[in-house]
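ok new one. same drill as before - structure tokens go in, u give me an amino acid for every spot. 316 of them this time. try not to just spam alanines like last time pls lmao
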């Protein structure tokens, strides 16, 4: 899907054909649309390939021959299952989005929907001007860094809810959810660090032209990214410590269960030993061979052993 927008009198409007100062939003393009971008618009094929590669890492590329700039950054993605209404089943990941400048046009390209771009085209972001390419990119980065912060707060709440459930009953579903959140934090941490490197490179002014009025905006972007990285590290350490603690609790509970089962096995083996003794075939008569004696003796010994184990707190 290719959508074309341009700012007219501070309003973002959709237009039919590309023109100078416009913005092309490309989402999961078909082969025909890829050919249009390459053959008709003149975008480099390697740029299109990089932009649509799900495994592409954030980087900056440029071609001075055709004066094209490619910036790939990661944005946060919330993967939710519509069939599962449990909020603790949410998973987070990241996906690349490409920002290309060519012929005074802006092209954004991704395989997954970027909510920040959706907000921009729906007019929910103020101060957007498609003719100001640098400000457009910095505004996009600021919105993405804020989205990272919002998702990190959600992850913190989800981990707290899951931890409360684990206090009540340690089921595999909660443990798997905790592992999923920990994996999400790893994705976020990696993407945030690479995004920060990209913004630092842009701050030098060699990748895209920076203006004095954009300095405050790029400072805000760096502050938000740095805060998101710090929050991600803190939450990751907390979650890792929590997982280790619950792993120790689970191991301790297993040891307690095994200890109790061992004690019960010992107590239940006492009557077997006594009845085996009185059930032996011998030429000589066994002393005190009354039919009721093994039964009473078994009960008495079992009770004595039970209280001995209980005094030693073997049932706790």
């Amino acid at each position: 899907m290719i959508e074309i927008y341009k700012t007219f009198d501070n309003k973002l409007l959709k237009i039919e054909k590309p023109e100078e100062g416009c913005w092309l939003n490309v989402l999961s393009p078909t082969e025909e649309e890829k050919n249009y971008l390459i053959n008709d618009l003149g975008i480099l094929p390697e740029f299109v390939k990089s932009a649509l590669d799900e495994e592409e890492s954030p980087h900056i590329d440029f071609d001075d021959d055709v004066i094209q700039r490619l910036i790939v950054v990661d944005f946060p993605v919330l993967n939710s299952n519509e069939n599962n209404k449990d909020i603790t089943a949410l998973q987070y990941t990241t996906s690349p989005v490409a920002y290309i400048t060519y012929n005074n046009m802006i092209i954004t390209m991704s395989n997954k929907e970027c909510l920040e771009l959706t907000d921009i085209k729906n007019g929910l972001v103020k101060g957007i001007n498609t003719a100001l390419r640098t400000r457009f990119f910095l505004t996009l980065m600021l919105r993405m860094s804020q989205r990272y912060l919002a998702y990190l707060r959600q992850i913190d709440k989800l981990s707290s809810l899951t931890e409360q459930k684990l206090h009540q009953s340690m089921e595999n579903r909660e443990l798997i959810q905790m592992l999923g959140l920990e994996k999400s934090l790893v994705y976020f941490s990696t993407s945030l660090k690479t995004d920060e490197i990209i913004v630092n490179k842009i701050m030098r002014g060699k990748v895209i032209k920076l203006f004095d009025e954009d300095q405050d905006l790029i400072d805000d972007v760096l502050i938000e990214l740095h805060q998101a990285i710090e929050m991600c590290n803190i939450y990751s350490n907390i979650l890792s410590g929590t997982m280790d603690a619950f792993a120790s609790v689970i191991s301790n509970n297993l040891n307690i269960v095994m200890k109790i089962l061992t004690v019960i096995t010992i107590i239940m083996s006492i009557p077997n030993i006594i009845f085996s003794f009185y059930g032996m075939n011998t030429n000589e008569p066994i002393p005190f061979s009354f039919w009721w004696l093994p039964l009473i003796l078994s009960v008495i010994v079992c009770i004595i052993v039970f209280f001995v184990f209980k005094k030693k707190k073997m049932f706790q």
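The helical segments are 31-40, 45-51, 115-121, 133-168, 172-203, 215-278, 293-311. and btw The beta strands are 2-8, 11-15, 22-27, 59-63, 68-79, 91-102, 105-110.
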